[in-house]
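Lab notebook, bench 4. We co-purified these components, and the gel suggests they stay together. Before we commit to crystallization screens, I want a quick structural picture of the whole thing.
Request: model the full complex, all chains together.
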Amino acid sequence: MTVKKDYIRPLDLRQGRVDMNHGAGGRAGMQLIDEVFARAFDNEFLRQGDDGAALPAPPPGHRLVMATDGHVISPLFFPGGDIGALSVHGTVNDVAMMGAQPLYLSASFILEEGFALADLKRVVDSMAAAAREAGVPVVTGDTKVVERGKGDGVFIATTGVGALPPGRRLSGALAQPGDVVIVSGTIGEHGVAVLSQRESLEFETAIVSDTAALHGLVADLLAAVPEGAVRCLRDPTRGGLGTTLNEIARQSGVGLLLEEAAIPVLPQVDAACELLGLDPLYIANEGKLVAIVAPEAAQAALAALHAHPLGQRAARIGVVQADDHRFVQMTTRFGGRRVVDWLSGEPLPRIC
Amino acid sequence: MTVKKDYIRPLDLRQGRVDMNHGAGGRAGMQLIDEVFARAFDNEFLRQGDDGAALPAPPPGHRLVMATDGHVISPLFFPGGDIGALSVHGTVNDVAMMGAQPLYLSASFILEEGFALADLKRVVDSMAAAAREAGVPVVTGDTKVVERGKGDGVFIATTGVGALPPGRRLSGALAQPGDVVIVSGTIGEHGVAVLSQRESLEFETAIVSDTAALHGLVADLLAAVPEGAVRCLRDPTRGGLGTTLNEIARQSGVGLLLEEAAIPVLPQVDAACELLGLDPLYIANEGKLVAIVAPEAAQAALAALHAHPLGQRAARIGVVQADDHRFVQMTTRFGGRRVVDWLSGEPLPRIC
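Here is the predicted assembly.
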């Protein structure tokens, strides 16, 4: 899609807005694709210009991994990121948590009539930069437009495909009593950054989203321990660490015992949570992972995480134990013990 | 995700509505996934219950094909289909148009607060039935919820992955002068069915959407002619046959000459178009394909299409010719000749 002479004038990327024509199948939509999407994401696959992309398959013996995520975060721009970068990181991370090497992304955009083209370009450029940085190209896409009041600026659904090496199996169903629970860094930054932007709160120390692609960190972690020693990886996004750990407990039919003092939280996130009446355990992260690791591999796993820029504050935060009730419990700073239940109280909508 | 005893009571699938809790990451969201999505789509991959699905790769030597489509059709239910079935057919067809065998689908749902759970269940059940019928499982998914007035019931973005046999290449860039243009059946039913529903029009003869998965038809077509004889396949959805043919002409740098009398249109679609002031050439189809075929293979291609239930009214509608202007022209019923331009006039929004 590189023929550009068809258009009478270029899109007005400063003052222009999305209109229904951009989604109707025709010249306007094609111009939007050429001048915003194709230009930003440019790669050999997208340049094929067909209804889909034809792609090299994973190496022989590898399986495929496929993961998808819809992104509806509000506001679209927040400290440390925006919906574009997030939509790359979120899906790259879902593929990486399966133990796979992310290879390709697809992107489906649902635009609201009246959305500023300047904002769209900013989102798409950020998304393209995140994809380049991650080394995972957006190889195919789609754009639809809905009437004003039937959408909210832009929603982005991304799907990732990755290559899973022979013999590798990571799953939330594989946690065993005695395994160690590790988190790759401080929790709660993403959710607090978004909420503070939403509430127009200003904190003394800036809190920025941790949004990041974790496949490099995962590759280093998996290379440092024997195959099978990492039972499960999860990125504790929506619902936070507390929800993710409950999911693992439920899936594996085990209990978890956490140590509150071991869970890394930035002081400014702690303070903001106190102010907002929130528990960092339930706040979304977009650049952290939880690893359930065999006890004999925990030391090597932690060392590998610590050696990577995204894992410097990795910590051992608990253990897996036999428990028919599949409870996640926590030894508190005061020496007591409480249940870390499924998310209760007010939900935090549209955090990713 | 088969543990169901956690929930105090089952979802109220008759009177219940989507609320923000269903998208917040927690027990309510998990219940929605268990009782609506997982139950309908049930398959071995989805049952893994992880952030993504681990899947058998395509056979050795095959490449991957990846295609994505967002679905925002309004109304959600229309004669002959609904957004659920459509979201399967649309993406299966995009994969098939590349000449690939569709293998897997992912699905991302964006729900509006207040959307009736009964409608959601109806959509998901229809989607699951379409996936089963097509033999292409939904292997992974995601659900988000946006506030009332920030969405429109449900949007569904589906991504498909397929296997492309060695040596196969189909592309809109491969049309050559002398090639034959074939359409697999009557055009315009989907768009007219949706518009008539939207405008509450009733016609003497019911017009139903042609929404269907075309990969079986494609497989039969490709098996009937030598590799390379089918240059390009496209499903003329949004923007209709006229837009699709202009895209091919642009991509290949050729002209097309159509014969109006050869283009199959149901009489009731013709009549409805006249009433609505529409041209069937620009009306969306969801169960038709356009094939650009080498002249010596045209006969065999048509025979293969005619032998399949979805291609019985296939017709040869024109030829490819050299034309630096890349015009799509048409010999009219009255013997004149006109240019079939890119879609002009009022767009038809949210037709898929």
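Residues 1-5 of chain B have pLDDT under 50 and may be disordered. Worth comparing against the SEC data before the next meeting. Chain B has eight helices and 14 strands.
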